[in-house]
Amino acid sequence: MEATGKLTNVQLELLKLFQYNLSDAQLTDIKGMLARYFADVASSEMDKLWEEQSWDEKTIESWKDEHLRTSG
């Protein structure tokens, strides 16, 4: 992501939380909610890829043997 000097919609929304003095437990809860949200999004995207690409366990097994490093 390129720095544009403008805040993103997520940053603007999170700034609204700064008006509150939250406890450490509340901050931990919020971090957990954000982590779960983004994990769920990533999981949904992977599920979609598996479906679209017809991946299966054989696909995963074949990936284990691939050499993905490039010379450089």
From TrEMBL:
<protein>
    <submittedName>
        <fullName>Uncharacterized protein</fullName>
    </submittedName>
</protein>
